[in-house]
Write a structure and sequence with these properties.
By secondary structure, this protein is an alpha/beta fold. The chain contains 14 helices and 13 strands. It has a seven-stranded mixed sheet with strand order 5-2-1-6-7-8-12, with helices on both faces. A four-stranded mixed sheet has the order 4-3-10-9. The protein is globular.
């Protein structure tokens, strides 16, 4: 199989680099400065066992590849807010022997939240979900770090909306050589909703900085409790904290990497890079949506969604709001 990594940023670059290092055929898809850096200097992946440079094919769209191959696997690693644009570009791409990517090829949604794969299923026939536990950082154009050890990450896989098949088991086998742990599960949504609850803290980190200290941790617990109440009201199952900890153990412990500090998660990185967008609508906003559908108030997640979007739109610096101001706004209602 050939892996086409649509969105070769932090997560996509880490997965693509590790797959290439394990001997698999990989194509990277990128735009702008990242495209130029990958094309001219290769993908530099900094991990606990060293820094590796992978000279891989780099494209900014399917046209540069000609007809796609029947054994291609599309791995979608763009932020959820960029999903529709990516699918509009890759869905109509022709495949050797007839048909299009949307009709014939598998699409893996390696994204935070739960909405990307739902968007994908409107366009693609064969959609797979990925629950991504992978601490990775876009350091600069061409350079990605992944600080997890002894494994780079844990990637639960499954057919969307549910089930498993032989193709996803073959993909999992490739990932486990990379090295990832890649459990294939029939109930992937349970893991994704559990990860969603964890990701509700992304906006707190993006707006106020690292979630450290008793006050910050207490506030995050309030935010996640609000999310859990919404999922319970909606009848949506999610893996417990104990179950998640049992799976993770010490398989993906963070190791300090010289020249590649891990400043924060995906939302923090969006603000730091000044991209102008952030994924809060599909994290905190998912809880807000479900709360409105099931008559559960979600004031904390509404506030965080609003603040994260405002910071992104106005290109404010990550972590520039004091935590006490955020808590005061939340308590003021």
């Amino acid at each position: 199989m050939r892996y086409i990594i649509i969105g070769a940023g932090a997560v996509g670059g880490a997965v693509g680099g590790r797959l290439a290092g394990a001997g698999h055929e990989v194509v990277l898809v990128a735009r702008g400065a990242q495209y130029t850096a990958l094309r001219d200097g290769g993908l530099r992946l900094r991990v606990p066992d060293g820094e590796f440079t992978y000279r891989l094919p780099v494209v900014d769209g399917p046209g540069e590849l000609g007809a796609l191959r029947p054994d291609d696997v599309l791995l979608l690693a763009v932020k959820t807010q960029d999903t529709e644009s990516a699918l509009d570009t890759w869905g109509p791409a022709p495949v050797e022997g007839g048909g299009t990517a949307a009709g014939r090829l598998p699409l893996l949604c390696a994204q935070n939240g739960v909405e990307g794969q739902r968007i994908a299923l409107r366009r693609f026939r064969h959609v797979y979900g990925v629950c991504v536990w992978l601490p990775a950082t876009f350091v600069e154009p061409g350079l990605v770090s992944a600080a997890g050890s002894p494994l780079t990450g844990i990637l639960h896989l499954g057919v969307y909306p549910h089930g498993t098949d032989e193709r996803v088991r073959r993909i999992a086998a490739d990932l486990e050589k990379a090295p990832f742990e890649a459990p294939v599960v029939p109930d992937l949504a349970r893991w994704q909703y559990a990860k969603l609850l964890s990701n509700l803290a992304n906006a707190v980190e993006a707006v106020t900085g690292p979630v450290e200290g008793e006050e910050a941790l207490s506030f995050v617990e309030r935010v996640r409790a609000e999310g859990a109440a919404v999922l319970d009201a909606a009848g949506i199952a999610y893996a417990s904290g104990e179950e998640q900890r049992a799976v993770r153990g010490h398989k993906v412990d963070l190791v300090p990497l010289d020249g590649a500090p891990r400043g924060g998660g995906s939302s923090w990185q969006s603000l730091t890079r000044g991209t102008g967008t952030i994924e809060a609508d599909h994290l905190n906003g998912e809880i807000v949506l479900l709360g409105r559908l099931h008559d559960v108030p979600t004031p904390l997640n509404e506030l965080l969604q609003h603040l994260a979007n405002t910071f992104a739109r106005e290109r404010r610096a990550a972590g520039s709001m004091p935590l006490r101001d955020l808590v005061r706004l939340a308590d003021a209602g």
